[in-house]
Amino acid sequence: MVLIHPSSVLEHRPEWVLYQEYVLTSKNYIRTVLDVKPEWFFDIAPEYFNPADLPECEAKRSLMRVVKRKAMKPAAKTQKEEGSDNEPADD
């Protein structure tokens, strides 16, 4: 486990990050950190971030939650669109 360096401007602890520098002191820190949304992995390089290719670990479980959320979004959008087509006609 690593910590975000105290000089970072991030005010929260993101689930996924991209970092430039790994700093070893009495603790392990990462510095120059960017918050990354895991949905971006699938948008940019889905073949590289295939959860089926990962061993059982926290990263795989996290990515599987993202896959489930992404699968539910189109279904919810489709249900909304179908609902708007079934509006009652004015008589």
Can you give a write-up of this model?
By secondary structure, this protein is α+β, with helices and mostly antiparallel strands. It folds into 2 domains: 1-35, no CATH class; 37-73, no CATH class. The protein contains 2 helices and 3 strands. It has helices at residues 39-44, 58-85; strands spanning 3-4, 17-24, 28-35. A 3-stranded mixed β-sheet has the order 1-3-2, with no helix packed on it. A hairpin with a 3-residue loop joins strand 2 and strand 3. The protein is elongated.
Provide tags for this entry.
alpha+beta; 91 residues; 20% strand
Short description:
With 91 residues, the chain is of the alpha+beta class. Helices cover 37% and strands 20% of the residues.
User: How widely separated are the two ends?
Assistant: 66 Å
Shape: elongated
Q: Beta-strand percentage? A: 15-25%
Sequence of secondary-structure elements: EEEHH
Could you say which structural class the secondary elements and strand pairing correspond to? alpha+beta
